[in-house]
Design goal:
- The complex is a heterodimer of chains A (111) and B (117).
- Chain A is mainly beta.
- In chain A, 0% of the residues lie in helices and 55% in strands.
- Chain A is built from no helices and eleven strands.
- In chain A, strands 2, 4, 5, 9, 10 and 11 form a six-stranded mixed beta sheet that branches. Chain A has a five-stranded antiparallel beta sheet with strand order 1-3-8-7-6, with no helix packed on it.
- In chain A, a hairpin with a 6-residue loop joins strand 4 and strand 5.
- Helix content of chain B is 0%, strand content 47%.
- In chain B, strands 2, 4, 5, 6, 9, 10 and 11 form a seven-stranded mixed beta sheet that branches.
- In chain B, a hairpin with a 6-residue loop joins strand 7 and strand 8.
- Chain B is globular.
- Classes of the chains: A mainly beta (111), B mainly beta (117).
- Chains A and B meet through strand 4, strand 5 and strand 9 of A and strand 5 and strand 10 of B.
Chain lengths: 111, 117
């Protein structure tokens, strides 16, 4: 079982729609959760971090965490063509805070 | 605030040659990470430094890879000799807090794209 699993994608959404990205993790005691955006040929850029159950909103992005279900998601509202990228879910273990990354979900926003 | 700096940005070598990558973390960041990212995959941690000490190098192929972080700031990652399967992007990241910090956000440099022929 992989430590962090994401929707394989690609995910194609029309401009203005909501893009929904899902991530599950295997280590029950994980403490910190991150979403990175990676444009083609570029390095990962941190866009959201979440540490407690519930929702966290930042602009058009909302991260949702459910530790009981070992599930974290990212919603992108009012999707724009500039949101077209690969989104990486990363999870930090509780003992050493080492990040484990999922393989990423590629999102394409159609104009 | 300047970000994580890496050089070179691109490198093409032949198998069995050696190569070195350099990283300068964000000023004041105690923890430095080297990752390998193969096309289509998420980054995989190779080595983690806390100041100038190694915290985790369990995923580093020590027969060919080495890394150091002298004086707790800059770091170099070396591959000798390189294999075809080492073709990847090598990413350096840094974070402000050490192991005691719960909110250990990591920030990445631009990466070095290595092609081994």
């Amino acid at each position: 079982q992989k430590e962090v699993e994401q929707n394989s994608g690609p995910l194609s959404v029309p401009e203005g729609a909501i893009a929904s990205l899902n991530c599950t993790y295997s280590d029950r005691v994980s403490q910190s959760f991150f979403w990175y955006r990676q444009y083609s040929g570029k390095s990962p850029e941190l866009i959201m971090s979440i540490y407690s159950n519930g929702d966290k909103e930042d602009g058009r992005f909302t991260a949702q965490l459910n530790k009981a279900s070992q599930y974290v998601s990212l919603l992108i509202r009012d999707s724009q063509p500039s949101d077209s990228a690969t989104y990486l879910c990363a999870v930090a273990r509780s003992n050493d805070y080492k990040l484990s990354f999922g393989a990423g979900t590629t999102v394409t926003v159609r104009a | 605030e300047a970000g994580v700096a890496q050089s070179p940005r691109y490198k093409i070598i032949e198998k069995r040659q050696s190569v070195a990558f350099w990283c300068n973390p964000i000023s004041g960041h105690a923890t430095l990470y080297w990752y390998q990212q193969i096309l289509g995959q998420g980054p995989k941690l190779l080595i983690q430094f806390q100041n100038n000490g190694v915290v985790d190098d369990s995923q580093l192929p020590k027969d060919r890879f080495s890394a150091e972080r002298l004086k707790g700031v800059d770091s170099t990652l070396k591959i000798q000799p390189a294999k075809l399967e080492d073709s990847a992007v090598y990413l350096c990241a840094s974070s402000l807090l050490g192991l005691a910090g719960a909110y250990n956000e990591q920030f990445f440099g631009p990466g070095t794209r290595l092609t081994v022929l």
